[in-house]
């Protein structure tokens, strides 16, 4: 899975770098109701919102997984507590003994 991530990230990064190098000239951004404007490179005007959207999407996904992380933590703590109780009761969680059958009659 990690290899797949690199196989996707490498070409996308390469395209972004080539785009940034090819589009270094300035672009004047004006937000219409506001009286000010700013001069930025074209690559920043295009790639900036993409990176910002990626970061905001990651934040929303991380916040959305909060309940799952809380449940996982609860279950982990519960399992550790039950393991401690089992060890304190003298039970062995390493071996499970199979029921013994009586020897066959006759013979």
Unreliable segments of 5+ consecutive residues: none
Q: Would you tell me the structural class of the helices and strands?
A: mainly alpha
Strand order, largest beta sheet: 1-2
Report the span from N to C terminus.
Answer: 60 Å
Order of helices and strands: HEEHH
- Count the strands? 2
Number of helices: 3
Q: What percent of the residues sit in helical stretches (DSSP H or I)?
A: 55-70%
Overall 3D shape: elongated
Can you walk through the features of this model?
With 107 residues, the chain is mostly helical. It has a domain at 2-66. Helices cover 63% and strands 9% of the residues. The protein has helices spanning 2-22, 42-64, 66-88; strands at residues 26-30, 37-41. α1 runs antiparallel to α2 (42-64). The longest helix is centred in the middle third of the chain and has 23 residues, at 42-64. The two termini are 60 Å apart.
């Amino acid at each position: 899975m990690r290899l797949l991530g690199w196989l996707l990230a490498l070409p996308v990064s390469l395209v972004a770098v080539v785009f940034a190098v090819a589009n270094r000239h300035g672009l004047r951004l004006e937000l219409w109701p506001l009286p000010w404007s700013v001069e930025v490179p074209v690559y920043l005007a295009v790639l900036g919102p993409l990176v910002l959207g990626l970061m905001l999407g990651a934040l929303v996904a991380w916040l959305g997984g909060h309940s799952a992380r809380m449940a996982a933590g609860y279950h982990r703590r519960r399992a550790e507590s039950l393991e401690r109780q089992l060890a304190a009761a003298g039970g062995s969680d390493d071996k499970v003994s199979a029921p013994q059958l009586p020897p066959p009659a006759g013979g």
